[in-house]
Amino acid sequence: MLTYTIRRLALFVPMAAGMVIVTFGLLLLVPGDPAAVLLGQEASAADIARLRASLGLDDPWYVRLGGYFAALLQGDMGRSIFQNQTVASIIGERLGATVELALAALVVAIVIGFVLGVAAAMFRGSWIDTASMLLAQFGVSMPVYWLGILLMLAFAVKLGWLPSIGRGEPLVTALGMALTGNPAPLFKSLSHLVLPALALGVNSAAIISRLVRTAMIDVLGEDFVRTAYAKGLRRPRVIVRHALRNALLPVVSVIGLRFGALLGGAVLTESIFGWPGLGQLTIAAIGQRDLPLIQGIVLTYAMMFALVNLLVDLSYALIDPRVRLG
Amino acid sequence: MTQASPQRAPALSVTGLDVVIDGDGGSFPVVRDMAFAVARGETLAIVGESGCGKSMTALSLLRLQPPAARIVRGAIAVEGADVLALPRPALEDIRGERIGMIFQEPLTALNPVMTVGDQIVEVLQRHLSLGGAAAQARAVELLSLVRMPDPAAKARLYPHQMSGGMRQRAMIAIALACDPAVLVADEPTTALDVTIQAQILGLIRDLQRRLGTALVLITHDLGVVAEMADTVIVMYAGRRVEVAPVMALFDEPLHPYTRALMKAAPSLEAGAAKAALTEIGGTVPPLWDLPRGCAFSNRCSLATERCRREEPPLEAKRAGHLAACWEVADG
Asked: Is the Cβ pair A227, B161 closer than 8 Å?
């Protein structure tokens, strides 16, 4: 397990470096001169040239890449062109909200996905199977922004059960307050989180449920499941301890990939629900051509995605001794 | 049919068992009119080619047949309990407790993500009220009972870290964990190396004698039958074609199919080596398309018009020796 972990961690370093280079390269290819954007339409060519020089935009790309790397290693992602703040601090303010939303959506996706998938596999061919897969079909076909608006109309506007926009205290802070005897902020945070997490998670829930169904049907036909029944084990134990644990293997790696989709979907979800996260920031930064900020955001997304998939790989080893022990 | 003494009730008895498979074009029989009884300490061998219904019979004993298969008729009694009438929870109490099962391929029959020890502990805790530590200790005892070298260390291994023979020993430990009345072994050595086969068979036989378990051994190997069985059932196309005590069967095989099987099996006895092996012409007919009359008639050199018209009943041709064939005279 230790060697596997070390090997996997070591792989992370060149991968991260690759992501930095790709992020940097993408922005070289983007049309539009940040200096011209910054100075507005009336700026003279001489002014633009002077600003380009002072921003270091005239240096050759490898010099700029080297400088970028060196700065990143010190946690410096540069300064935003339009906001008088460092990119790192702008992202830092927003990151927590997006991570919270994406993780909540992931929980929604996993819980709904597994319940539907396992139920469909266990009662294959019955009305439960049909209903689950119809629901999954519905979930897959539903765009985030459409489902988000529908949910908001139903539960916030019509029924008035949940708030429509904004965010409460960060969930971690609220949880801490609840533990010290003040549960109100926790309820408020959760009430704000439910709708966006649902809107964002349903799509992944649908995909996971189909995968779980297929994996479970495969595993339920395996000899060791028959052995488990031959041992006289009760059905719930056979399903959970024997079948589900083996069905997890193909599903877990997809869960990691879904996290990427959730980060992408978060951009839309945040806009709909006024969730103060990276997604809203992304849209604003692109609109303003705030290149250092865009660069920082893209890199942050990429790192989060890579980190989650690192965790997935490590959990793979936890689940399957054949990975761990070779 | 078996030589059970009348004062001993059979550990397992089967009567008139019919199993069908539901296919697209209707259902067709895979096991027809199966019947036998085994007492504790006895070994019954069910022998036949692949696809003759012997594994389906074994799985049906605990209602473990695949979903497409259906038991339509018959009775199965384990120490008097009617398996086919039991509600599921009561059936689950019998599985692994009164009947243990060993399967053909120990690699796929064991859960790859659980240690072998945990897989034994699981069956112990399901049926016996044992605490965690006691169950662990008992699991190691069972592993040493099946002559696993270094049992305490082996209990912590996963199936993929073991050899085929060790895996099958672990499987036997699971099957015998609760001291069952009946052990069902479905081709227990088919997937193993020849050198290991003899060890595993010897182990099963020793443990059976020591624990006084009734053994139902499913095999296609007549050598295994000769070595292990007290009573033999020869199956063909889902049906018993010959039933006899093992000595009688090898002394005087009555059914043409049994005789053909014996000619097709190599013998290591002196003098027999020179006899050429013969194969049985043709193949087992598909179960959904059995010939009229005797199912073996299309491959049988003795077949007459009557064989192709009427199915022969299974009847006593000698004392305690049954065969289903028109051409075998009573003697």
From this structure: no
